[in-house]
Structures are given as C-alpha cells and as structure tokens.
Amino acid sequence: MKISVDTTACSGHARCAAAAPELFRLDDDGYVLPVEGEVPKDLEEAARDGELACPERAITLH
User: Fold this and answer.
1) pLDDT level of residue 22 (50, 70, 90 thresholds)
2) What is the model's pLDDT at position 12?
3) How many other β-carbons are positioned within 10 Å of the β-carbon of residue 40?
4) What fold characterizes domain 3-61?
5) Any bridge partners for residue 5, and if so which?
6) Pairwise CA distance, residues 56 & 16, whole Å
7) What ranges do the domains of the chain cover?
8) Are 51 and 2 in contact (CB under 8 A)?
9) Residue 24: its pLDDT value, please?
10) Which of 4, 20, 39, 59: disulfide with 51, CB 3.0–4.6 Å?
11) In the prediction, which pLDDT does 7 show?
12) Phi, psi for 43 (deg, rounded to 5)
C-alpha cells in the first residue's frame, strides 16, 4: 500500500497526523507532507484512519 497526498487540497487541519502520527508528518505550518515508500503491513489500518480523518479527502491509499 502507498499513500498519495494532494498537498494543494490540504487545509492544515492535521487530523491525519492526530489519527496516525507514525505515518503522517506535518510541515511548520501544519500541512501534511508527502509520504514516501510503502506502508508497512502493521500500519495499514493507521493509514486508513488517517485517510478517513481528512475532511478535504487530500489523502488517497493505493
């Protein structure tokens, strides 16, 4: 599984980072940073939680 982030859609609510801080990092202004590489199997549920927490739907799992 991979995570795509539409950084132009992100409004900086930081709900993804609150739901899955082990996956989603924020910049100094509170906007989510792109996520590199594959999501480890044991963090796939956390990735889904982060995706669902985003009110702008700026996060997509593949």
Assistant:
1) very high
2) 95
3) 12
4) Alpha-Beta Plaits (3.30.70)
5) 59
6) 11
7) 3-61
8) no
9) 97
10) 59
11) 92
12) -115, 10
User: Per-residue pLDDT tens for 37-62?
Assistant: 999 999 999 999 999 999 999 999 99
* pLDDT score for 29: 93
Q: Is the CB of residue 14 less than 8 Å from the CB of residue 38?
A: no
Q: H or E stretch including 61?
A: strand 59-61
Count of residues for the chain? Answer: 62
Question: Pick from 21, 29, 8: which is nearest to 53 by CA?
Answer: 21
- The token duo for 61 is 């799992």
- Give the pLDDT of residue 62: 96
Closest CA to 47 of 31, 60, 28, 33: 60
